[in-house]
Design a protein that fits this description.
With 727 residues, this protein is of the alpha/beta class. It has 34 helices and 17 strands. It is globular and about 95 Å long.
Length: 727
């Protein structure tokens, strides 16, 4: 062991209390101490911070650590001061400091006490800070969360792209870039932007053996989550949602069901956020429901589950968020709820962004869809995405434990390889699929690919099938995606060999999550938990009752309500009111016969009902409910109710629909008559009474398309109809 090695081993023990280095830490530190630019790719929990903390302590001068999060800086500075007797050993310089504090920091640095200075990229761009940094010796620059440099990373920040010119202005020193998630594309971007293509690269495996990955169809997700937490009492977990509104709703629902939970999102004031984070770290609450703003750099080793209520925007983000589970090597369950509705919402969010960003966002979303719908080992897919090959399945994910049927893939693989080569490896997977299925898009027409002999030859298989084959070929490394023009499919050497000497290759059928799976709590696509025999009986009963009352069946109970009955088996009127879309009014008016039928079915078939616990809905789920009912009684115009509650008109209509669907009678004639002619109301009303087969607004809009009625008008009249006929 040479001098430097011995020195870093002694310091490791002295300051950090460890006897041995973890993974590639020692090699990374030696590379930096030898003056090399160094690129470090280490998964969450791999010990990245030590890679710059230890060399900073033993180098002459001060190390500049560029980090994006103020909370994270404070956390790291506190822990460094814990390792050292000298309180000035580490400081941060950012907008949270006042003038006196800033002067103290500068004094400590100039006196030589400070070995690590954390700065935000925004602070680095300020002229007076740049001038100050020229006044003392800098041992090296470390750029943490370096994926923020790349537009292809999951947390792109434009100010990160200005780091290199500023570093050049301050004065050259070795550069270290660190990240926990980077695909080959992102890695290339980082190195190119930081002008460190010649850097020493250290890449740890992305494999975390203790993490279990599962994707579930998004059916009654809130109830599923409550059931999961109740079955894992006292365990720490994080639940990620897309919107602040959903975060608060879900946190409230967990609390009502006696789960110690708190919300966390960027819309809260700083004090509340910090308090909630601390309560989670100190185990005063078990669960945090959060937007992705939560968890970067949180060093809680015993998070036992990470649940994604919404599909994340990218696989990098997903990998980093799930990486917060089981950092101590113990149990870590990563469960994600998937519905194509979520994908469409994310696409809508992108519509106002520049075209370039939209293009990148769509590519990243495509990868997420591929991951969710694929039936291949989840860990192999993730590792492949990060440019790492894994030859066997993990044996510990939903796809490995519940394998889908396999089929011989040789002919399909050859077809795709030939197609990619025919179009000279210049197109993305979507285009290849369009050629095979014979879909004449604008791009196909531009390149005259409809004239290729191969066009439409794979038409008997649908697009979903071919996408699945391409995903599995990427994992098997017969093909790869080009890095510079990201997404263009290239045939690898292995793929060319396969073309020369094909052999049997088994592929698996993909998952088919129904497009109808929805974010809303009661919208089903016939999940496996539904008792199909009971569901059919309930539909027959509904039909007979509807006939008796001369009403369309959906007015009695909606399909989602029947489906929920076929999952929950309510056998008392009280239990019936726990069913999705069934309030007291509905239950009293139509419920008795349904409850009797279910009771009989349960007894005859000796069914064990899932009544181990009943999920409580949030009392008065809408805080606006009473306000809305009162003011409709007072005949307040709906647009004024919107102003008073801060709701958009469509959101208010959602609220009123929920009230009416659960059996409360509401009269909005005063408002409808003020905005619509009588014959328009009659026309829409008649459609729901005589022509509609379901309560679908989409179907109503299609049927009434030639009339020019707006969705708002149709929904308002539907509320009138359901209220008068059903309640």
């Amino acid at each position: 062991m040479d001098n430097k090695e011995q020195q870093i081993s002694e310091l490791l023990k002295k300051y950090f209390g460890f006897d041995t280095f973890k993974g590639l830490q020692k090699e990374v530190i030696l590379s930096l101490l030898n003056g090399n630019d160094t690129f470090v790719l280490m998964p969450t929990g791999g010990g990245k911070s030590l890679c710059y903390q230890l060399p900073a302590l033993m180098s002459e001068g001060t190390a500049i650590i560029i980090s994006p999060l103020i909370a994270l800086m404070k956390n790291q500075v506190d822990s460094m001061r814990g390792f050292s007797m000298e309180s000035g050993v580490a400081h941060f310089l950012n907008s949270s400091l006042n003038k006196t504090e800033t002067n103290q920091v500068k004094e400590d640095i100039l006196s030589g006490k400070t070995k690590l200075l954390y700065v935000a990229p925004e602070s680095l761009t300020k002229e007076d800070n740049v001038e100050f940094l020229k006044k003392f010796k800098i041992s090296f620059f470390a750029i943490d969360e370096a994926h923020c440099i790349s537009e292809w990373g999951h947390d792109f920040r434009p100010e990160y792209r200005r780091i290199r010119p500023i570093v050049n202005e301050i004065g050259r020193a070795p550069l270290m870039a660190l990240t926990a998630t980077a695909t080959p594309k992102v890695q290339h971007d980082i190195q190119k932007n930081l002008d460190m293509l010649d850097a020493e690269v250290f890449k740890s495996s992305f494999r975390r053996h203790n993490l279990y990955y599962e994707v579930r169809p998004k059916v009654k997700a809130s109830k599923e989550i409550i059931r999961y937490i109740k079955n894992n009492p006292g365990k720490s977990g994080i639940i990620y949602c897309l919107s602040r509104k959903k975060v608060e709703e879900l946190a409230e629902m967990l609390v009502v069901n006696d789960i110690k939970a708190l919300a966390y999102h960027a819309g809260m004031d700083t004090a509340t956020r910090s308090r909630n984070q601390d309560m989670f770290l100190h185990e005063e609450v078990d669960v945090i429901v959060a937007t992705i703003a939560f968890g970067m750099g949180i060093d809680k080793p015993d998070v036992r589950f990470v649940i994604h209520y919404n599909v994340p925007k990218s696989l990098e983000g997903y990998y980093q968020e799930t990486g917060r589970a089981g950092r101590d090597g113990g149990e870590g369950k990563c469960i994600s709820f998937y519905s194509y509705d979520d994908i469409q919402k994310l696409e809508k969010f992108m519509q106002n962004k520049p075209v370039n960003e939209q293009e990148i966002g769509k590519q990243l979303l495509f990868e997420t869809v591929s991951y969710a719908e694929s039936s291949v080992c989840r860990v192999r897919q993730l590792l492949n995405y990060f440019g790492e090959e894994m030859t066997e399945d993990c044996g510990n994910c939903d796809n490995c434990l519940n394998p889908k049927p396999k089929f011989e893939g040789k002919e399909d693989i050859l077809t795709i390889l030939e197609t990619i080569l025919t179009v000279k490896e210049r197109f993305k997977s979507e285009h290849i699929v369009n050629i095979l299925t014979g879909k004449k898009t604008a791009e196909v027409a531009t390149y005259k690919h409809q004239e290729l002999p191969i066009f439409g030859t794979g038409g008997e298989e649908n697009a979903r099938h071919w996408k699945g084959v391409i995903r599995q070929m990427l994992i098997a490394q017969f093909i790869e995606k080009e890095i510079v023009n990201y997404g263009l499919l290239k045939v690898t050497d292995k793929g060319r060999e396969y073309l020369q000497k094909p052999y049997s290759f088994m592929l698996t059928k993909d998952h088919n999550y129904e497009d109808g799976d929805s974010d809303t709590e009661g919208n089903f696509s016939g999940g496996s938990a539904t008792d199909t025999e009971l569901f059919a009986m309930l539909k027959d009963l509904r039909k007979n009752i509807a006939k008796k009352h001369n009403l369309p069946p959906f007015v009695i109970f909606s399909d989602p309500s029947l489906q929920d009955m076929a999952i929950q088996y309510p056998v008392t009127m009280d239990e019936l009111t726990m069913v999705s879309g069934v309030g007291q009014g509905k239950a009293q008016k139509y419920g008795a016969e349904f409850v009797d039928l279910i009771k009989k079915h349960v007894e005859e078939n000796e069914i064990e009902r899932p009544q181990d616990f009943v999920v409580k809905s949030v009392v008065n789920k809408s805080t606006n409910k009473v306000f809305i009912i009162k003011n409709i009684d007072k005949k307040m115009p709906l647009d004024e109710i919107c102003n008073a509650t801060g709701l958009e008109m469509m959101e208010l209509i959602d609220e009123i629909e929920a009230i009416v669907n659960s059996g409360t009678r509401i009269n909005i004639d005063y408002y409808i008559n003020s905005i619509l002619d009588e014959d328009v109301v009659d026309d829409i009303y008649t459609y729901f009474k005589e022509d509609a087969e379901t309560d679908s607004i989409a179907e109503a809009m299609e049927e009434l398309a030639d009339t020019g009625y707006s969705e708002e008008e149709v929904r308002l009249v539907k509320i009138k109809f359901i209220s008068e006929m059903g309640n």
